[in-house]
Design a protein that fits this description.
The complex is a heterodimer of chains A (240) and B (260). With 240 residues, chain A is α/β, with parallel strands linked by helices. Helix content of chain A is 34%, strand content 28%. The radius of gyration of chain A is 18 Å and the shape is globular. Chain B is mainly α. Chain B is globular and about 55 Å long. The chains are: A alpha/beta (240), B mainly alpha (260).
């Protein structure tokens, strides 16, 4: 049986007086592609912020690779993160951005490029390494951000709405690449999205609505459970 | 240990590249103190008679007196600008990368402040070289001796600015910061005139200026540029260094990330 690489247990969170998460629990198994699905404002990004320690956890518990989030030097060591909003430095080249991120992960410049040499080729970024990020299109920028998240050979990859704003081809190229990472490198993925067409029948899914988990499980099981035709109908049924 | 060195190296590397690519920012940061040196000091020196005060052992020109204060001005403006950027970045983008590292967050913030200090130091050195070329009596050797003081002073100001911009919500644009933080801090110090001159006019302002850490930053730079050492001033500088870092770390921690 696969062990959980990420466990979120009974977390609550408020922005001031506004409660945005209520008793959230979810888990991600090793080597799986898991999806956190919910409408805008459901609380997906807040969960992401708590897992990545951008927000301080007050109520509940989060463990990554068996390390509590408070022990961040161990918990965050083996994760890769792709944020919803662009976080590359536009004035720097791709390589310089990668060096910088590698340094934040405690790697020297040589190690940084060596650890991702294969992925640079797979993502077709070789010829862009010395290009200023400002000159790249949205799809390439996203690829660089995914590449960057792989620098420290993560066991868990967290992606917050990584395909928002991209054209259909770029979206599915990125999705396919990330799914391939799960198969070939046994990386666990938490894919946060509101886009149904990015979810497959065998994905492990958690549906969130207004700060509460509505249901979780394998997509096809959940669809059958509620006797619906497909995920879209099931989702509408759950969040109505 | 290596990871901490690589981390520091990476952050400084990034700041230096940005510094080299944003040359207009570099020159505009120099224009301000140069205007004070070339224009303000020319008009002001006739109105202000300077007595012989430590560290000086002889009468000096007003331009010579004002230079340490203008170095402080470079550090102060840079510190404020970069700390505000850090706060905005925390909400909008690149700081998130920094904050999700598994390396101690306070150490990362220190690296960021140190990197800014390196950039500020390069600007301060450029300003000092121009001042020498303009005729101000400073030696190149003194500039080298002053570099550590400039770096420490810059970190103090960066840390202070980070604290201010973390805890005061209203400080959301640079104009407000100029009016309520930078100018009072600058004018209530020994940057433009010796403290005894202020004492002659207002004891209250003298007392406030005496407690202003910026006064000691300016004086530490002044003493270093003159190749002198004054224990009290450097001790206060050291204490300010520790306190400002603690304030920055606590302030930054308490600053909430907005809901994106």
């Amino acid at each position: 049986m696969k062990k959980n690489i990420l466990e979120v247990n009974h977390i609550d969170f408020s922005y001031g007086k506004k409660r945005v998460l209520n008793n959230i629990s979810l888990s991600i198994k090793e080597g799986t592609f898991s999806v956190l699905l919910g409408l805008n404002g459901a609380g997906k990004s807040t969960i992401f912020s708590l897992i990545t320690r951008l927000q301080n956890l007050v109520v509940g518990e989060i463990t990554i690779n068996n390390f509590p989030i408070k022990d961040y030097s161990n918990a965050l060591k083996d994760i890769g993160i792709v944020f919803q909003e662009p976080t590359l430095d536009l004035d720097l080249t791709v390589k310089q951005n990668l060096y910088y991120y590698g340094a934040l992960k405690g790697l020297d410049f040589k190690q940084t490029i060596l650890t991702i040499a294969d992925e640079i080729k797979k993502l077709e970024l070789e010829e862009h390494l010395d290009t200023q990020v400002r000159k790249l299109n949205g799809g390439h920028r996203r690829r660089v951000e995914i590449l960057r998240a792989l620098i420290n050979k993560p066991k868990l990859l967290l992606l917050d709405e990584p395909t928002v704003g991209l054209d259909l081809k770029s979206r599915f190229d990125i999705l396919e690449y990330v799914r391939d990472l799960v198969k070939t490198k046994n990386i666990s993925v938490l894919w946060i999205t509101h886009l149904f067409d990015e979810v497959e029948q065998n994905d492990d899914i958690t549906v969130i609505k207004a700060g509460e988990i509505v249901d979780a499980g394998i997509v096809k099981d959940i669809v059958n459970k509620y006797k619906q035709e497909n995920l879209v109908e099931t989702f509408n049924y759950l969040v109505r | 240990m290596k990871k901490y060195i690589y981390c520091m190296k990476g952050i400084v590397y990034k700041e230096l590249i940005r510094f080299l690519k944003q040359q207009s920012r570099f020159f505009s940061a120099l224009v301000r103190p140069l205007l004070w040196l070339f224009i303000f000091s020319v008009g002001f020196k006739t109105a202000l008679g300077l007595a012989i005060i430590p560290p000086y052992e002889t009468y000096i020109t007003y331009e010579t007196y004002i230079v340490p204060g203008l170095v402080g001005m470079v550090l102060l403006f840079n510190g404020m600008q970069s700390s505000l950027t850090m706060i905005f970045d925390r909400e909008m983008g690149s700081m998130k990368i920094l904050l999700t590292s598994y390396i101690n967050r306070n150490y990362l913030l220190f690296c960021k402040m140190f990197a800014t200090a390196i950039v500020s130091t390069l600007q301060a050195i450029t300003f000092l070289i121009i001042a020498i070329l303009y005729g101000v009596d400073i030696s190149y050797g003194a500039i080298i001796l002053t570099i550590p003081v400039i770096i420490v002073s810059s970190i103090i100001l960066n840390a202070f600015a980070l604290f201010i911009s973390s805890v005061i919500k209203q400080l959301e644009n640079f104009a407000t910061v100029m009016n309520f933080v930078i100018f009072p801090m600058f004018f209530l110090s020994s940057a433009l005139y010796p403290l005894w001159k202020i004492k002659d006019s207002s004891l209250l302002l003298f007392n406030i200026s005496s407690y202003n850490p910026f006064t000691y930053i300016v004086e530490a730079i002044r003493f270093s540029l003159y190749g002198k050492f004054e224990l009290e001033i450097f001790l206060i500088l050291g204490i300010s260094f520790v306190i400002s870092l603690i304030m920055a770390f606590v302030g930054f921690k308490s600053k909430k990330v907005s809901h994106s």
